[in-house]
Amino acid sequence: MKILLTGGTGLIGRHLIPRLLELGHSVTVSTRHPDTARARLDPRVTLWRDFEGHHHLNDIDAVINLAGEPIADKRWTAEQKQRLCHSRWDLTQRLVGLIHASDTPPSVLISGSAIGYYGDLGEVVVTEEEPPHNEFTHKLCARWEQIACEAQSERTRVCLLRTGVVLAPRGGILGKMTPAFKLGLGGPIGNGRQYLAWIHIDDMVNGILWLLDNDLRGPFNMVSPYPGA
Length: 229
Hints:
Blueprint: E1 2-6, H1 11-22, E2 26-31, H2 34-40, E3 46-49, E4 62-65, H3 78-100, E5 108-114, H4 136-149, E6 157-163, E7 165-167, H5 172-182, E8 198-200, H6 201-213, E9 218-222
Parallel strand pairs: 1-2, 1-4, 2-3, 4-5, 5-6, 6-9, 7-8
Protein name: Cell division inhibitor
Domain NAD-dependent epimerase/dehydratase: 3-214
Pfam families: Epimerase (PF01370)
């Protein structure tokens, strides 16, 4: 397959690309910073500068949309919340426009979302059918998903990745926490009732590959069956 990927230099993208190449797929990454991406990514990856000069996706078989302002790097000020939202909404809207402009559109759009869609429900077990909750994270994810679903048609299926906290040996939340624990500064950070729905990076990548290869659509909870606390 010819696969277009956004968010290729992020935690998930960096682990996904080698697997895609290993499976024989052709990978194109759209990025605002192609020079930085070139230094980080496999030389077999084709780079686009932020869709520049591209008006359709006729030559693309699948789109994997993982881009967005990092969710945990800064305090959630009003300004940062706007960046978190529009870095996801605006780029996804552009992708949908390119899909609509295609005579032979991609067969699938796999688009990011998060378990923040459900809000903070504590011990409540939720499924993909859970109704929305009136919190910032839900509003961000609900609008993100709504935009992605505009690409749905008889020729293009849409899969939504409601992703938990991604655990990887390097990077992500473990990358931030590990140095403190190695210095003996770690310890309990709550009362045991702060539930953390997580997924290992290998499972995340395998889940995306499964959605790529199977005729599935709609939202998928990308989490372990057993949340931490």
